[in-house]
Amino acid sequence: MKLLRFGEMGSERPGIIDHNGAVRDISALTPDIEPGFLSSLDFGRLRSLDLASFPFAPADARLAAPITGTSKIICIGLNYADHAQESGLPVPDRPTIFMKATTAICGADDDLILPRNSSAVDWEVELAVVINREGSYIGSGEAMQYVAGLCIGIDFSERNFSEEGGGQWTKGKSADRFAPLGPWLVTLEEIANPQALGIWLEVNGCRFQSSNTAAMIVSIADLISYVSQFMRFLPGDVILTGTPSGVGLGQQPPVYLHEGDIVRAGITGLGEQSHRAISWQSAQGNEQKRRPAVA
Protein backbone atom coordinates (compact mmCIF):
# COMPACT_ATOMS: atom_id res chain seq x y z
CA MET A 1 0.00 0.00 0.00
CA LYS A 2 1.02 3.57 -0.64
CA LEU A 3 -0.40 5.94 1.97
CA LEU A 4 -0.14 9.71 1.63
CA ARG A 5 -1.48 13.08 2.66
CA PHE A 6 -2.62 15.75 0.22
CA GLY A 7 -3.84 19.33 0.28
CA GLU A 8 -2.62 22.78 1.19
CA MET A 9 -0.48 23.31 4.29
CA GLY A 10 -2.64 23.10 7.37
CA SER A 11 -5.55 21.49 5.50
CA GLU A 12 -4.09 18.10 4.56
CA ARG A 13 -6.28 15.03 4.12
CA PRO A 14 -5.35 11.32 4.20
CA GLY A 15 -5.12 9.36 0.98
CA ILE A 16 -4.15 6.08 -0.61
CA ILE A 17 -2.99 5.12 -4.10
CA ASP A 18 -5.53 2.85 -5.80
CA HIS A 19 -4.79 -0.02 -8.20
CA ASN A 20 -4.76 2.37 -11.16
CA GLY A 21 -2.31 4.79 -9.57
CA ALA A 22 -4.92 7.43 -8.67
CA VAL A 23 -5.10 9.14 -5.27
CA ARG A 24 -8.23 8.36 -3.23
CA ASP A 25 -9.40 10.40 -0.26
CA ILE A 26 -9.77 8.11 2.78
CA SER A 27 -11.04 10.76 5.21
CA ALA A 28 -14.05 8.52 5.85
CA LEU A 29 -11.66 5.92 7.23
CA THR A 30 -9.34 8.12 9.30
CA PRO A 31 -9.01 11.87 9.88
CA ASP A 32 -5.27 11.74 9.13
CA ILE A 33 -2.18 9.54 8.76
CA GLU A 34 -1.05 10.12 12.33
CA PRO A 35 0.46 8.06 15.17
CA GLY A 36 -2.85 6.60 16.35
CA PHE A 37 -3.67 5.41 12.85
CA LEU A 38 -0.20 3.89 12.36
CA SER A 39 -0.28 2.05 15.69
CA SER A 40 -3.65 0.47 14.90
CA LEU A 41 -2.97 -0.12 11.21
CA ASP A 42 -4.72 -3.28 10.06
CA PHE A 43 -3.05 -4.10 6.75
CA GLY A 44 -5.46 -6.95 6.00
CA ARG A 45 -8.48 -4.68 6.43
CA LEU A 46 -6.93 -1.96 4.28
CA ARG A 47 -6.09 -4.43 1.51
CA SER A 48 -9.67 -5.70 1.53
CA LEU A 49 -11.21 -2.26 1.08
CA ASP A 50 -12.97 -1.37 -2.13
CA LEU A 51 -10.83 1.66 -2.95
CA ALA A 52 -13.17 2.59 -5.79
CA SER A 53 -15.73 3.52 -3.14
CA PHE A 54 -13.55 6.41 -1.93
CA PRO A 55 -13.60 9.74 -3.79
CA PHE A 56 -10.71 10.89 -5.94
CA ALA A 57 -8.40 13.56 -4.60
CA PRO A 58 -8.01 16.65 -6.83
CA ALA A 59 -5.61 15.81 -9.64
CA ASP A 60 -3.47 18.88 -8.92
CA ALA A 61 -3.40 18.49 -5.12
CA ARG A 62 -0.17 19.16 -3.29
CA LEU A 63 1.40 16.05 -1.78
CA ALA A 64 2.29 16.72 1.85
CA ALA A 65 4.56 14.64 4.06
CA PRO A 66 2.81 11.24 4.26
CA ILE A 67 2.62 11.29 8.08
CA THR A 68 1.93 13.89 10.75
CA GLY A 69 2.42 13.99 14.51
CA THR A 70 6.02 12.77 14.41
CA SER A 71 7.64 13.09 17.83
CA LYS A 72 11.25 12.90 16.63
CA ILE A 73 13.46 12.55 13.58
CA ILE A 74 16.46 10.37 14.36
CA CYS A 75 19.33 10.71 11.91
CA ILE A 76 22.15 8.27 11.31
CA GLY A 77 25.43 9.79 10.18
CA LEU A 78 28.12 8.14 8.07
CA ASN A 79 26.19 4.93 7.36
CA TYR A 80 27.74 4.55 3.89
CA ALA A 81 31.51 4.05 3.81
CA ASP A 82 31.96 6.16 0.66
CA HIS A 83 30.24 9.14 2.32
CA ALA A 84 32.51 8.89 5.36
CA GLN A 85 35.49 8.86 3.00
CA GLU A 86 34.38 11.96 1.07
CA SER A 87 33.72 13.74 4.38
CA GLY A 88 37.27 13.02 5.53
CA LEU A 89 35.98 11.07 8.52
CA PRO A 90 36.65 7.51 9.67
CA VAL A 91 33.92 4.89 9.32
CA PRO A 92 32.40 4.74 12.82
CA ASP A 93 32.51 1.43 14.68
CA ARG A 94 28.90 1.99 15.76
CA PRO A 95 26.06 4.17 14.41
CA THR A 96 26.41 7.93 14.78
CA ILE A 97 23.11 9.40 16.02
CA PHE A 98 21.91 12.98 15.86
CA MET A 99 18.50 14.65 15.74
CA LYS A 100 16.60 16.90 13.36
CA ALA A 101 13.72 19.17 14.41
CA THR A 102 10.26 17.95 13.40
CA THR A 103 9.41 21.50 12.28
CA ALA A 104 11.70 20.82 9.30
CA ILE A 105 9.23 18.29 7.84
CA CYS A 106 7.58 19.21 4.55
CA GLY A 107 6.15 17.59 1.43
CA ALA A 108 7.82 15.86 -1.49
CA ASP A 109 7.47 18.78 -3.92
CA ASP A 110 7.53 21.78 -1.59
CA ASP A 111 10.01 24.58 -2.24
CA LEU A 112 13.29 24.37 -0.32
CA ILE A 113 13.73 27.58 1.65
CA LEU A 114 17.39 28.63 1.92
CA PRO A 115 17.71 29.98 5.49
CA ARG A 116 18.51 33.61 6.19
CA ASN A 117 22.30 34.19 6.15
CA SER A 118 22.96 30.73 4.75
CA SER A 119 25.72 30.07 2.20
CA ALA A 120 26.37 26.33 2.32
CA VAL A 121 23.07 24.44 1.95
CA ASP A 122 23.81 20.83 1.01
CA TRP A 123 21.78 17.75 0.09
CA GLU A 124 21.68 14.17 1.42
CA VAL A 125 19.11 11.72 0.03
CA GLU A 126 18.19 9.00 2.53
CA LEU A 127 15.89 6.04 3.04
CA ALA A 128 13.41 7.06 5.75
CA VAL A 129 11.91 4.47 8.09
CA VAL A 130 8.60 5.25 9.82
CA ILE A 131 7.88 3.51 13.14
CA ASN A 132 4.41 2.06 13.83
CA ARG A 133 4.43 1.27 17.56
CA GLU A 134 6.02 2.10 20.86
CA GLY A 135 9.12 0.20 21.91
CA SER A 136 12.45 0.16 23.70
CA TYR A 137 15.28 -2.39 23.80
CA ILE A 138 14.13 -3.99 20.55
CA GLY A 139 16.00 -7.01 19.23
CA SER A 140 17.24 -7.00 15.63
CA GLY A 141 15.16 -10.10 14.88
CA GLU A 142 11.90 -8.34 15.74
CA ALA A 143 12.83 -4.83 14.59
CA MET A 144 11.02 -4.89 11.23
CA GLN A 145 7.75 -5.53 13.07
CA TYR A 146 8.08 -1.93 14.29
CA VAL A 147 8.13 -0.50 10.75
CA ALA A 148 4.96 1.08 9.34
CA GLY A 149 6.65 1.68 6.02
CA LEU A 150 9.41 3.42 4.11
CA CYS A 151 9.65 6.66 2.17
CA ILE A 152 12.19 9.02 0.64
CA GLY A 153 13.78 11.57 2.92
CA ILE A 154 16.27 14.33 2.20
CA ASP A 155 18.47 15.59 5.00
CA PHE A 156 19.13 19.14 3.80
CA SER A 157 22.00 20.67 5.77
CA GLU A 158 23.56 24.09 6.21
CA ARG A 159 27.21 23.15 6.65
CA ASN A 160 28.38 26.47 8.07
CA PHE A 161 25.59 26.47 10.65
CA SER A 162 26.64 22.98 11.73
CA GLU A 163 30.30 23.88 12.13
CA GLU A 164 30.31 27.42 13.48
CA GLY A 165 30.60 28.01 17.20
CA GLY A 166 31.09 24.36 18.12
CA GLY A 167 28.21 22.21 19.20
CA GLN A 168 26.67 19.42 17.17
CA TRP A 169 25.19 19.07 13.66
CA THR A 170 21.55 19.62 14.66
CA LYS A 171 21.58 23.41 14.26
CA GLY A 172 22.56 23.01 10.60
CA LYS A 173 19.91 20.35 9.99
CA SER A 174 16.70 21.81 11.37
CA ALA A 175 15.64 24.82 9.30
CA ASP A 176 12.11 24.91 7.89
CA ARG A 177 11.74 22.59 4.85
CA PHE A 178 15.00 20.75 5.65
CA ALA A 179 13.27 17.35 6.08
CA PRO A 180 11.02 16.60 3.09
CA LEU A 181 9.32 13.20 3.29
CA GLY A 182 7.30 11.28 0.71
CA PRO A 183 5.63 11.35 -1.70
CA TRP A 184 4.15 8.19 -0.16
CA LEU A 185 4.57 5.93 2.85
CA VAL A 186 5.06 2.52 1.24
CA THR A 187 4.24 -0.50 3.41
CA LEU A 188 6.70 -3.37 3.53
CA GLU A 189 4.67 -5.94 1.57
CA GLU A 190 5.34 -3.84 -1.54
CA ILE A 191 9.11 -3.93 -1.03
CA ALA A 192 10.84 -7.24 -1.75
CA ASN A 193 14.08 -6.26 -0.01
CA PRO A 194 14.54 -2.86 1.72
CA GLN A 195 18.30 -3.48 1.66
CA ALA A 196 18.43 -3.60 -2.15
CA LEU A 197 16.91 -0.29 -3.30
CA GLY A 198 18.50 2.10 -5.76
CA ILE A 199 18.89 5.59 -4.33
CA TRP A 200 19.82 8.76 -6.23
CA LEU A 201 19.78 12.56 -6.21
CA GLU A 202 20.23 15.18 -8.95
CA VAL A 203 20.78 18.93 -8.89
CA ASN A 204 19.76 20.80 -12.04
CA GLY A 205 19.74 17.51 -13.95
CA CYS A 206 23.27 16.49 -12.87
CA ARG A 207 23.33 13.25 -10.89
CA PHE A 208 25.48 13.65 -7.80
CA GLN A 209 24.35 10.67 -5.70
CA SER A 210 23.77 7.17 -7.06
CA SER A 211 23.97 4.12 -4.84
CA ASN A 212 21.97 1.28 -3.31
CA THR A 213 20.74 0.62 0.22
CA ALA A 214 22.75 -2.61 0.06
CA ALA A 215 25.78 -0.37 0.71
CA MET A 216 24.52 0.71 4.15
CA ILE A 217 27.03 -0.21 6.85
CA VAL A 218 24.32 -0.92 9.45
CA SER A 219 21.03 -2.43 8.27
CA ILE A 220 17.57 -1.03 9.00
CA ALA A 221 16.83 -3.75 11.55
CA ASP A 222 20.13 -3.24 13.37
CA LEU A 223 19.64 0.54 13.39
CA ILE A 224 16.19 0.20 14.98
CA SER A 225 17.60 -2.15 17.59
CA TYR A 226 20.61 0.06 18.34
CA VAL A 227 18.69 3.33 18.62
CA SER A 228 16.06 1.70 20.85
CA GLN A 229 18.74 1.07 23.49
CA PHE A 230 18.97 4.84 24.05
CA MET A 231 15.47 6.21 23.46
CA ARG A 232 11.88 5.01 23.31
CA PHE A 233 10.26 4.86 19.90
CA LEU A 234 6.74 6.19 19.42
CA PRO A 235 4.42 5.62 16.46
CA GLY A 236 5.23 8.12 13.70
CA ASP A 237 8.89 8.48 14.61
CA VAL A 238 11.23 8.71 11.62
CA ILE A 239 14.73 7.30 11.19
CA LEU A 240 16.84 8.77 8.38
CA THR A 241 19.24 5.92 7.70
CA GLY A 242 22.22 7.76 6.21
CA THR A 243 23.31 9.02 2.81
CA PRO A 244 25.73 7.71 0.18
CA SER A 245 28.58 9.73 -1.33
CA GLY A 246 27.98 12.61 -3.71
CA VAL A 247 26.95 15.40 -1.33
CA GLY A 248 27.93 18.96 -2.16
CA LEU A 249 30.57 19.10 0.57
CA GLY A 250 32.37 16.18 -1.06
CA GLN A 251 32.83 17.91 -4.42
CA GLN A 252 36.12 19.52 -5.40
CA PRO A 253 35.52 22.39 -4.83
CA PRO A 254 32.35 22.04 -2.71
CA VAL A 255 29.03 22.76 -4.46
CA TYR A 256 26.10 24.24 -2.56
CA LEU A 257 22.53 25.18 -3.45
CA HIS A 258 21.43 28.60 -4.69
CA GLU A 259 18.08 30.18 -5.45
CA GLY A 260 16.53 28.63 -8.55
CA ASP A 261 18.31 25.28 -8.26
CA ILE A 262 16.15 22.18 -8.70
CA VAL A 263 16.81 19.12 -6.53
CA ARG A 264 15.31 15.77 -7.58
CA ALA A 265 15.68 12.52 -5.66
CA GLY A 266 14.30 9.00 -5.84
CA ILE A 267 14.42 5.52 -4.35
CA THR A 268 13.30 2.37 -6.14
CA GLY A 269 9.60 1.72 -5.44
CA LEU A 270 9.21 4.81 -3.26
CA GLY A 271 8.66 7.47 -5.93
CA GLU A 272 10.48 10.76 -6.45
CA GLN A 273 10.82 14.18 -4.86
CA SER A 274 11.45 17.55 -6.54
CA HIS A 275 12.32 20.82 -4.82
CA ARG A 276 12.99 24.32 -6.11
CA ALA A 277 15.37 26.32 -3.94
CA ILE A 278 14.12 29.79 -3.01
CA SER A 279 15.62 32.43 -0.75
CA TRP A 280 14.32 33.12 2.73
CA GLN A 281 13.37 36.61 1.55
CA SER A 282 11.34 35.21 -1.37
CA ALA A 283 9.56 32.81 0.98
CA GLN A 284 8.57 35.71 3.23
CA GLY A 285 7.22 37.61 0.23
CA ASN A 286 5.16 34.60 -0.85
CA GLU A 287 3.73 34.31 2.65
CA GLN A 288 2.70 37.97 2.64
CA LYS A 289 0.91 37.48 -0.69
CA ARG A 290 -1.12 34.60 0.76
CA ARG A 291 -2.32 36.58 3.77
CA PRO A 292 -5.76 38.17 3.36
CA ALA A 293 -5.99 41.92 3.32
CA VAL A 294 -7.06 43.54 6.58
CA ALA A 295 -10.29 45.56 6.21
Task: Give an overview in words.
This protein has one domain (68-290): Fumarylacetoacetate hydrolase, domain 2 (Alpha-Beta Complex). 14% of the residues lie in helices and 29% in strands. The protein has six helices and 17 strands. The protein has helices at 35-39, 43-48, 81-86, 159-163, 220-227, 280-290; strands spanning 2-6, 13-17, 23-25, 73-77, 96-100, 105-106, 112-114, 121-122, 125-131, 147-154, 157-158, 179-186, 198-203, 206-212, 238-240, 262-267, 271-279. Strand 16 (262-267) and strand 17 (271-279) form a beta hairpin. The radius of gyration is 19 Å and the shape is globular.
Short description:
The protein has 295 residues and is an alpha+beta fold. It is 14% helix and 29% strand.
Query: What's the order of the H and E elements?
Result: EEEHHEHEEEEEEEHEEEHEEEH
Strand segment tally: 17
Structural class: alpha+beta
Strand content: 25-35%
Q: What's the name of the CATH homologous superfamily? A: Fumarylacetoacetase-like, C-terminal domain
CATH topology: Fumarylacetoacetate hydrolase, domain 2
Shape estimate: globular
CATH C-level name:
Alpha Beta
> Radius of gyration over alpha carbons?
19 Å
Mean pLDDT, all residues: 93
Portion of residues in helices?
Answer: 10-25%
Name of the CATH architecture: Alpha-Beta Complex
